[in-house]
Fold this sequence. Notes:
Blueprint: E1 8-9, H1 21-28, H2 33-37, H3 43-53, E2 60-63, H4 65-77, E3 83-88, H5 93-100, E4 104-109, H6 118-125, E5 131-135, H7 147-159, E6 163-167, H8 181-184, E7 188-193, E8 206-210, H9 212-219, H10 229-240, H11 242-266, E9 277-281, H12 287-296, E10 299-300, E11 302-303, E12 313-317, H13 321-337
Parallel strand pairs: 1-10, 3-4, 3-5, 5-6, 6-7
Antiparallel strand pairs: 2-8, 7-8, 9-12, 11-12
Amino acid sequence: MAGRERFVRLDRNERVVPFAKSEFAAMIATLRPEIFSAYPNPSPLIERLARQLQVPAEWIHPTNGSDAAIRKLFQTYVRPGDTVVLAEPTYAMYSIYAEIFAGRVDAVSYSADRVLHVDDMLTRLKKHPRVLALACPDQPTGAVLPLEVLRRLAQAASDHDALCVIDEAYFPFHSVTAVPLTEEFDNVAITRTFSKIGGLAGLRLGYVVAQPTVLRHLERVRGAHEVNAVAIQIGCYVLDHPEMGDAYMRDIEAGRQILAAAAAELGLGFPRCPANFQLLELPALDPKALVASLKDRGFLVKGGFSHRSVARCIRVTLAGPDVMELFAASLREICASAERV
């Protein structure tokens, strides 16, 4: 959207406040001239991820963000007429990629209170879909499936010859990971990104974790040098400096507490969202009107969802206390004068 730079951008779940000058300078200082003139070598990134995740290096496939990882998995596995089982609502590109590759979506709907009926999903898997795609945490609902539930779903997908894709874009805001399932099941692929905790949305860096039986298929649709050298180098820096992510998470959680206090004061629902975003439930306000009023005050947020689970909600990307104090003040002013519905 043109002119986004004029707003405080709390609508895309990206890092809201740029890196500190000292952090940015330290990252840029690692970019040697040959990085720009030589073809990329992802090996240093893969080696670091393998050590961190405690999996073989052959189980890691770097991509241009987790979105590219998901697209490649769908491109590899979905053929015309194949079924893709999803939750609804969820990350919008799942259904778009299913359509691009001529698949058919079979969606299991979240309840009004954002609970996914797992038995319904298990029933859908008995129909032999090609792919089961799950975001954990989900977006926009913020819902989380326990690891044991994910294991049941992975087993059912395996029993019916389906690939099980588990999207962990918001790890480690939700610290429980399904990566250990890749050791148990050769049909599980975990996708991750550096866009959220790493704050590198502009560099487009992510990866897939899966057994070689999955990654060998992905290699068939891999272009040459898909991940650029600058993204690889900065990704390595972020992995070498976990204190940066730790500080960012503390900042986000401090901002969440400020928003929680405002929500409690205003009578707004504040469901658990272990991610860098937060849902606000609006029992007596029109979400679309609130989105418009916040934009008038310089804040972009997401709202106007059609699904019953989030129809009365807005989704706010979280930032640190300085930003969230200003946002909470605007929210209070709007709610004080808003018409109730």
